[in-house]
Amino acid sequence: MSQFLNYEQEGHIVTLTMNDPERRNALTGNNAVPEFLAAIDRIHADHSVRAVILTGSGTAFSSGGNVRDMGRYSAMPAMELRREYRLGIQKLPLALFNLEVPVVAAVNGAAIGAGLDLACMCDIRVAAEEAKFAESFVKLGIIPGDGGAWLLPRIIGLSRATELTLTGQTIDARQALEWNLVSRVVPADQLLPTAREIAGAIAANPPHAVRLAKRLLREALHSRLDTLLEMSAAFQVMSHQTADHQEAVAAFIEKRKPEFRG
Question: Where does 207-254 sit in CATH, by number?
């Protein structure tokens, strides 16, 4: 089986490119999930990485589940199929959610079903003008099995997430921008440069502060205010005692560019 995910690093930025354009970068029926999990483990272990870009090759970001592979599911014992979901595609949202390094999705084309949910697992989404989005599980008589029902409402609100989920309709990049599903829409030739610009702006900051700030944003999705404030106090103590914080303060006072070492 050919490699699904290309891993490239330039400076502090890793670019992950889904590389199965013939199957529109489908996430099932191949080695996609294990390769994603291996890449995330690699990023966790490499403290030089400060930001990640995720994109697709060809005309699609990701078509989600491989429909041609789904026929076998109907004949599988129920508990075996449940286990396949739990040990397969469902590991991906948990792994990306717990990745401390921010991930920018550069949505180059169609993000359909689990492909849309994959984009929602990222921290920031930018889209090419040709990109399209659909939470289309209902069209196949199934439901979002990979966390989309948790992710999508938190990004675009419950009403719009319900509309997308229950109609299965496709929206274009401009509507995605209006609905806050993406933060920018750019011409196709500007997609990766824009993603690199955002990733570079993130990577220029003290990496410990970025990682802790991302963790706070993630925890805030399901925490009470008082709980989050306690966590913020602990993270702030850690931050104040880092060399990068001291460098930032010194550079501000001395009116020079800081040099952060992580």
Answer: 1.10.12
Q: Domain coordinates of the chain in residue numbers?
A: 5-203, 207-254
Q: What is the tens place of the pLDDT at every residue in 29-88? A: 899 999 999 999 999 999 999 999 999 999 999 999 888 777 787 788 989 888 888 988
What is the per-residue pLDDT for 1?
57
SS (H, E, C) the chain: CCCCEEEEEECCEEEEEECCHHHCCCCCCCCHHHHHHHHHHHHHHCCCCCEEEEEECCCEEECCCCHHHHHHHHHCCHHHHHHHHHHCCCHHHHHHHCCCCCEEEEECCEEECHHHHHHHHCCEEEEECCCEEECCHHHHCCCCCCCHHHHHHHHHCHHHHHHHHHHCCEEEHHHHHHCCCCCEEECHHHHHHHHHHHHHHHHCCCHHHHHHHHHHHHHHCCCCHHHHHHHHHHHHHHHHCCHHHHHHHHHHHHCCCCCCCC
Please check whether the domain covering 5-203 is classified as CATH 3.55.40.20: no
By residue count, the chain amounts to 262
pLDDT, one tens digit per residue, over 199-209 is 999 999 999 99
* pTM of structure: 0.94
Q: Which tens digit of pLDDT belongs to each residue from 86-117?
A: 988 999 999 999 999 999 999 999 999 999 99
24: left (phi over 0), alpha (psi -120 to 50) or beta: left
Angle at 182 between CA 177 and CA 183, to 5 degrees: 85
Q: Around 238, how many Cα atoms within 13 Å sit in the side-chain half-sphere?
A: 15
What's the number of CA atoms in the CB half-sphere (13 Å) around residue 114?
Answer: 23
